[in-house]
Structure formats: structure tokens, C-alpha cells
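We include the pair:
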Amino acid sequence: MDKNLTLNIGKYLFSVPFLIFGIFHFMDAQGMAGMVPDFIPGGVFWVYLTGIALIAAAVSVFINQKVVLAMQLLALMLIIFVLTIHLPATINDMNAAPNLLKDASLAGGALLMSVLARENSGGDA
């Protein structure tokens, strides 16, 4: 398969779920507000902000603008989720481990996407 075709398929397969996850944050903000750690005030505000960030990251890839920054920020957000939401949940219940592993893996993918975007743009995309 052609390298450019493979890169395009990969970047869209990676990005489309973030767009969908972002939309889900607006569809069920109240339900997701319970995932915000108790020590962080503002519950539903953070759900909406996260939804905006997820949608913005996907749109950045779709329009090929500021992809390096978007993917680095996405990775940072996912790592924050791993440390503040999923790790404490996993310590209390090993059944929460898949979410920790999913977000850690997605953070790694976002970092890889940032490197690919930089290499394919000759600088900061």
C-alpha cells in the first residue's frame, strides 16, 4: 500500500473516534460529570471543555492545521486522565484497568501522530 494512503487512512482512523467521543461529551455531559475527580470543582464544565478539546484535536487533523500542537495537547490531556481518573480507579478496582490502558495507548498514538505531522510538514503542521 502507498505510504501516503496508509498515513491518511491511519490519521483518520485515529482521529474520527476523538470527534465522536467529543460529541458524546455534549450528549451526556451530566452522566460524564461523575467521572471528574471530586477534588476538581466544576464537574460538567470540565466535561464540556474536554468535548471541545477532543473535537478540536480531530478537526486539526482533518484540516491539517496545527496538528503537532493539537496531538501534543491531546496526549497531555489523556495522560492527565490516566493519572487523575484511571489510575486511582484501577487501584481501587482492577476492572478499571482497560480505561487506563486505552488512554495511555491513545496518548502514545497522539505523540506518534505529532512526530509524523512534523516530519511530513517539514516543520510544525
Observations:
- Residues 3-121 form one domain.
- The two ends are 24 Å apart (CA to CA).
- The CA atoms of residues 12 and 28 lie 24 Å apart.
